[in-house]
Amino acid sequence: MTDPSRLLAQLAAHLGADHVLTDPADLAPYLAETRGLQRGHALAVVRPADTEAVAFVVRACAEAGVPVVAQGGNTGHVGGGLPQGGIVLSLARLNRLRALDPVNASITVEAGMVLADVQAAASAAGMLFPLSLASEGSCRIGGNLSTNAGGTAVLAYGNARDLVLGLEVVLADGRIWNGLKGLRKDNAGYDLKHLFLGSEGTLGLITAAVLKLYPRPISRSVAFVGLTSAEAALALFRSLRAEAGPALTAFEYIAPFGLEIVLRHRAGARRPLAGSHAAYALVELSTHRPGEDAGALMEVLLARAQDQGLLDAAALAASEAQANAFWDLRESLSEVQKAEGASIKHDVSVPLSRLPAFLARATQACEAEMPGLRVCAFGHFGDGNIHFNLSQPPGMDPAAFLAAWERFNRIVHDIVAALDGSIAAEHGVGLRKRAELARYADPVALDLMRSLKAALDPGNILNPGKVLSDEAPRVEVAPGPVSSGFLEGSTKF
Ligand code: ZN
């Protein structure tokens, strides 16, 4: 690396000194991550205002051999935006709405726009941008795209990548790829946008995107359901999917311990159902056609399900406020877990048909491993994605509990692997899951990922050490002629 003070002077001259932060107090928020488990370090935080300035920063850093870590709202769960040296490139000032085309049903936004602002812009035009997650008031769309965020609308609309028509990306050498096309059909060569979506800032920096808009639902209905088991949850889900079709817009799962701690710690939270149940589901139906009332549909479908013995009890939200209160029970689960001490978190998916088996096996194995441990499983049941979190036994030293993280990773992830699932379903890999990815990913897939990284970022400038570890690959495949030099360790990242 050349003298970093020269690089910083060069960046300050281009961006303005106010947008090159080096004071430790200014840097602090960019060096912390949501869970506070790790702190990063960086030479500086830079805040370019437009794509040209982002390209300038990346080019200057590439020439100086200094890593660049892109950050949006810094709300990730796996340390993907945590700098380990180099420059933090904040995209917060690229927050403009560039265009909204109601006929094409698309919106073109810059990466730093807060997700809630994208939703609001769509709504102001009478349309829907469906991506929705707990941190939507502070996460930024560029971060959502670079992590392929999931959230609570995946069942109906897909993950973040499914909502993208086109991208603008700054490459590792500072070139700008303008792929901002609003096309729903385009088979002209490789679909490059998917390289950058979900790659956590390791292959290029997303600076703008064309996103899909949808018609807004006319009505929605939310119910909180008590069930006898996870198998019953699956049976209810299948019944609703068959009968409601696309009107089924959410099916979220909450294990009893989750509801218990929300009621204990969340201000204003009220028990949605009488009695206690072995499992809970939050069900949302949305309708789009005039005369179709989601509430009436919900009543008919849940009554039928109750007759068939698929559910124990159900409460239908009687108002929009109550619907929001039901959703709040689900969305505050991560937050309230902090009040129960340390937690070890897993973000996994399995084929839906195997989800009850996963829940039963993983719960039993974890409880057997550490008496007193509380399983806090919840999440996007309809997507096959569960946040399989473990709360420490009451009274245990939090540090001692967290020291068991590896042990529980092995237990939970081995079960996931045996069921053909994923150890990183929604939150990505970042720093925290990279060893797990190296352990569980198909060796050929890992080799392809490393080849892509080497091709797009040969200097290992972009978010180095994330997703793929810096260590030489563990893979033991017969190296082909193209990758052999690489596998021998000539390129590391
Ligand atoms: Zn989630």
A few lines on this structure:
The chain has 18 helices and 19 strands.
Structure explained in plain terms:
- With 493 residues, the chain is of the alpha+beta class.
- Among the domains are: 97-215, Uridine Diphospho-n-acetylenolpyruvylglucosamine Reductase, domain 3, CATH 3.30.465.10; 219-335, Alpha-Beta Plaits (2-Layer Sandwich); 341-427, 2-Layer Sandwich (Alpha-Beta Plaits).
- It contains 18 helices and 19 strands.
- The strands form four sheets. Strands 12, 13, 14, 15, 16, 17, 18 and 19 form an eight-stranded antiparallel β-sheet that branches.
- A hairpin with a 5-residue loop joins strand 8 (164-170) and strand 9 (176-179).
- The two termini are 16 Å apart.
- Mean pLDDT is 93; it is low at 472-493.
- Zinc ion binds at residues 150, 379-380, 387, 426.
Mean pLDDT: 93
Separation of the first and last Cα atoms: 16 Å
* CATH topology group of the domain at 97-215: Uridine Diphospho-n-acetylenolpyruvylglucosamine Reductase, domain 3
Could you tell me the radius of gyration in angstroms? 23 Å
Detail the topology: elements first, then pairings:
Elements: H1 4-15, E1 20-21, H2 24-31, E2 44-46, H3 51-64, E3 68-71, E4 87-90, E5 97-101, E6 106-110, H4 115-124, E7 127-128, H5 141-146, H6 154-157, E8 164-170, E9 176-179, H7 193-196, E10 205-212, E11 214-215, E12 219-227, H8 230-244, E13 248-254, H9 256-265, E14 279-287, H10 294-307, E15 313-316, H11 320-331, H12 333-337, E16 343-344, E17 347-349, H13 355-369, E18 374-380, E19 385-391, H14 398-402, H15 405-418, H16 434-440, H17 443-456, H18 484-490
Parallel strand pairs: 2-4, 3-4
Antiparallel strand pairs: 1-2, 5-6, 6-10, 7-11, 8-9, 8-10, 12-14, 12-15, 13-14, 13-18, 16-19, 17-19, 18-19
The protein binds zinc ion.
